[in-house]
Amino acid sequence: MQTERPFVISIAGFDPSGGAGLLSDIKTLEQIKVMGLGICTALTLQTASQCLSLEWRSIDEIVKEINVLMSHYTVSVVKIGIVKDAEFLIEIINAVKACNADAKIVWDPVLKSTSEFTFFNLETLPLLKNWIDKISLITPNYNEYNVLKNVGLLSKENSCSVLIKGGHREDLLGTDVLVEDGIETLLAPSNGDFVYHPKHGSGCVLSSAIAGELAKGECLETACRKGKLYIEKFLKSSPSLLGTHS
């Protein structure tokens, strides 16, 4: 059995272009020397620029796969990507915590694709109020952060940490904001500016990199900083929408 690298499960969609979802997550985890395991939430038909269709898998199948993998491998961190609604997400969280109550969960709340394909049923978001504290880190962009905040999921009473990605902000472009225990930490671009090529699946890459660093034992702030360095390199890797990992 693999003993040198920690195990991380990505629970996400399958993107045949390889730019986002499971394939992208596994590429990222392997590059940062973490053993990536994968569970598919949905089969999508998409390219780097457009999502054409989506077919959700059964939550029962997903829970079964969580149980099998987590009973066989020592999984300390789970990254969650696209899910169809809050009930779907709650079932996944419950299954993960039942297998390992100490497992850290990183949720990248993919509500819509860049091409405006809707993944998540927003009307179900209030159901997460009693479950949000079971998530270690949420990684929304500015638009997603505002949606979650407006339904009361990101109040100061919650112990869940949040990394607000800075790719969509108008001021200080590229500066992320980590909110941990009510304290905000600004994570500025490493080179002082934010010149990059837009990339399909960049949110998947960042959240997976952070999950991998957490599995390697880094504290949350350090994991986010290292994840940011990884995504900066990824965003500059090529002029196309599909980035490369190195």
TrEMBL record:
GO molecular function per UniProt: hydroxymethylpyrimidine kinase activity; phosphomethylpyrimidine kinase activity
Q: Record's superkingdom?
A: Bacteria
Keyword annotations for this protein, in alphabetical order, are: Kinase, Transferase
Record-annotated Pyridoxamine kinase/Phosphomethylpyrimidine kinase domain positions: 15-241
Q: Which PANTHER family match?
A: HYDROXYMETHYLPYRIMIDINE_PHOSPHOMETHYLPYRIMIDINE KINASE THI20-RELATED, PHOSPHOMETHYLPYRIMIDINE KINASE
Q: From its record, what is one biological process in GO terms? A: thiamine biosynthetic process
InterPro entries for this protein: HMP/HMP-P_kinase_dom, PM/HMP-P_kinase-1, Ribokinase-like
Note the Pfam families from the entry: Phos_pyr_kin
Species this protein is from = Chryseobacterium joostei
Q: Where is the signal peptide?
A: none
Pathway, according to UniProt? Answer: Cofactor biosynthesis; thiamine diphosphate biosynthesis
Q: What is its EC number?
A: 2.7.1.49
Q: Report the protein name in the record.
A: hydroxymethylpyrimidine kinase
Q: Which GO terms describe its cellular component?
A: cytosol
